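Read as chain and fold; for instance:
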Amino acid sequence: MFPPLLTPSGQTYTVSVNVTNTTGSDAYLVGYIDFNKDGDFLDTGEKSATVTVNASGSQDVSFTTPAGMTTGTTYARFRLSSTQTQAESSIGAATSGEVEDYALPISPSIFGTIWNDSDASITLNGSESATNAGGLTVYAVNTSGNVAAKATVAADGTYVIGGLSAAAYTLRLSTDSSAAIGASAPTASLPTGWVNTGENKNGVTE
């Protein structure tokens, strides 16, 4: 039911919910996720928009992931009611519909931005643009030199690698996207004209 919930902020997180409404009237569906694991659904962004349900079927409930999420188990809640105000409250009694709660793991992930650092400043500045240069892949390589996970770099230069267990990984950027999970990691390779100038981790250059 749930796609992987990863730690980067600003991502659209969508859950497809199967609902039944045979009343012939509108019902209302709202989702809640306790992103910061503080035991409630009251923080900004933890409540979805209200979805109007006029028939049975699958309905998408979407959120935007906030900053500051940490790995571990949190909880999601979905409320369906013919009374909109009851669906739009995360707590309290409801005179119709259904409430369901689910445990939801927040998984480790690695994310970042790729750009051609033409001035070798190891900082993305006004003269440069984040890009995938037409096709780049970032590999998370384990201590055995094998691919633990990988991600295609988006056109805007961003990437998110999920499906990781807590461990140490080396990131490897490559124009070769063919290496499979568990296989030996490909050699690092850059687009023509690019030079590896280093890494910027939250303002710390390496």
